[in-house]
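Why do we care about 3D structure at all? Because function follows from shape, and shape follows, mostly, from sequence. That is the central idea of this module. The next example makes it concrete: a single protein chain, its amino acid sequence, and then its structure expressed as tokens.
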Amino acid sequence: MSKFAMYAKFKAQPGQRDALARILLEAAEQCESEQGCELYIVNASDEDPDIIWVTELWSDAEAHAESLRNEDTVALIGRARPLIAGVEPIKLRPLGGKGFQ
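And the structure:
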């Protein structure tokens, strides 16, 4: 199976970036117990005060999909939804590089 990677660009409602970032950081903590999650990094944009990027690497696409069915994840998504003005997921298939095994 191929690993699954994704960049997700979140545009927060005006003035809500920090609140959204806190929820996404909770998701990162939750990923510590997700067996298929290899990387989940929350990044703030230096160029736009409303943008947050999340960098994800999973053992495979099914592990990512399974994580979205987790009831704790569903609850976090519910809390985050009102803070999100838009999201652009970019799904990727990693080929290799430093830190990739």
